[in-house]
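U., I forgot to send this yesterday:
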Amino acid sequence: MTQNTLKDDEFLKQAKRVLDDDVATLDPLIAQRLQVARRQALDGATRRHTRGMPQWLSSTVAASVLVAMAWMLIPREADLKTGMEDLELLSSAEDLEFYENLEFYQWLDAQPSEAG
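Result:
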């Protein structure tokens, strides 16, 4: 066992001792009320579990969630194109200043020519 596991085990043993001592010194009326509340909670949990949604419905919901997650996680063609453009930009031999001024060059290209 590792040292952390030994520390955890010792901590759990000490916590159990403290809680057991507290239960032993608890007022009998409070102990009885706690026991009744515990039984009611366990009975309610059992009833809720048995009358929950039908098995086929919970399976359908789980499958739908998995399909939605897969749909969101699978890269789309547009995402791949953007990634390729970024890769081309990073691997190009052009100076970075060219790309910083790219909008200016596009604007300049769109201007009418004055040659005449």
